[in-house]
């Protein structure tokens, strides 16, 4: 047994076992014992891991805390779990035991079902708490081994958050019925306690947690009984926490205040922005958007990674011949270049990366956006303001008096904007914009539907790139699965980590121009473009599959 008389893990016995299995050297064991003299309170496994010893079983790797915990789990014949906060129902498991009970025994409940509760511990021989917990919950206790650091950090987060949520809930007025909520929507006579210390802590936790989990969007959604916090990670939404409705509304008020929005106005959608500084010094920009619902305002925050400010076309997945052709189109002095795809397909990222490629000191690059998603120092950016009758078309006309070389229009939404883009291209400017179409060729039909004459499309359109985002296979756990059922830490067992683009580039050659007619045959145009070398989205997806970057199911999911 690796424990002492009190059933706590014993450092000397752990070191002896590791020596017997040749996982450490005698010199390393002496170092650990010396370190223990000044770090007596440290968990034995954390103490050994702190020496950063090489792992003989994994050449070139360190004997990390993770590997030590896996080794311990195998020795005591208990499952090992790497705790993934996204897989833990924080609100549910936080109610299973008190913070004092968890802290006293160094344990944490991480899952519960109809018959059992899963409890993580870094002291596998300690059992005096099991009977009490099983009796109070009326469920069987399933023990697992986890990292003491993870248990400690998640417990601090979980119980600290639960305390703040409870405190904030007690500060909120009694819940309203559905009809009363509808009547009071936007009344503004009972402002939520946006500056309450508990609410401040909950909002700070939410923002930091979303950043740590690589979320692209935060959804804060009020419902009849409770509000839901969801994070979009690699394109998919994950439910994280269920807050009392009053707390959810107070969180919305806090975020509106931070985003310099009208906190009292709840009847109309609003947009705002805020910044959050990371521990490393970088700043993350967040774009806020509110939407009135019967149970309060739904809030969505879009996070912009500071690393995206330096994102290049290559980072997005453009490469080889496709990259050369796109850069060739960007080098044109005039014409319209369009990027198409559904919402969330990466169109804006492609536009910004393209503008960064073009924004040299010799160029005057201007953009009109709704809203400005990322602040770019090399671009003169203009915000659409409907309240001041400043739309996309008005903004383009104003920009034409600013001696621009390149104009970016956030989106061509209507006939006026389409005509303004055409006029800008006809007067010798390169115009970049986006459209919502399923493929590149469909952009021509969309412009025709907006009332742009076919001969003007022929004269101005020089290229269209359709795109999608697919999740990439996790490089750590694919194609093999983790041994002993262990979940990959990087992808959380999903098999995917990060995203890359699929692209379809239509170059408007002389042959393509001849086929742009009032009744253009899209199928024939698509076939002709392929004969000229256009590779469609599915073929791009096939290439990504053959190179082991993604899978068939993922390509079919985004390409239909």
Describe this structure in words.
The chain has helices at residues 11-20, 26-38, 44-49, 65-76, 90-93, 99-105, 130-137, 148-171, 178-184, 197-212, 245-258, 320-330, 347-358, 392-399, 415-426, 442-449, 454-460, 510-514, 522-531, 537-546, 552-559, and strands spanning 107-112, 116-121, 140-145, 217-221, 226-233, 236-244, 271-277, 283-293, 296-304, 335-340, 365-369, 380-383, 406-409, 430-435, 461-473, 496-507. It is of the alpha/beta class and 560 residues long. The strands form three sheets. The chain has a seven-stranded mixed sheet with strand order 12-11-13-14-10-15-16, with helices on both faces. The protein has a six-stranded antiparallel sheet with strand order 6-5-4-9-8-7, covered by helices on one side. It is elongated, with a radius of gyration of 29 Å. The two termini are 57 Å apart. 36% of the residues are buried. This is Type II/IV secretion system protein.
Q: What structural class results from the helix and strand content?
A: alpha/beta
The top level CATH class name of the largest domain: Alpha Beta
- Overall body shape: elongated
Helicity range:
25-40%
Could you give the distance between the termini? 57 Å
Helical stretch count?
Answer: 21
Which labels suit this protein?
alpha/beta; elongated; ATP binding; ATP-binding; Beta-Lactamase; nucleotide-binding; 38% helix; 560 residues; single chain; 4 domains; 6-stranded antiparallel β-sheet; 7-stranded mixed β-sheet; GMP Synthetase, Chain A, domain 3; ATP hydrolysis activity; 21 helices
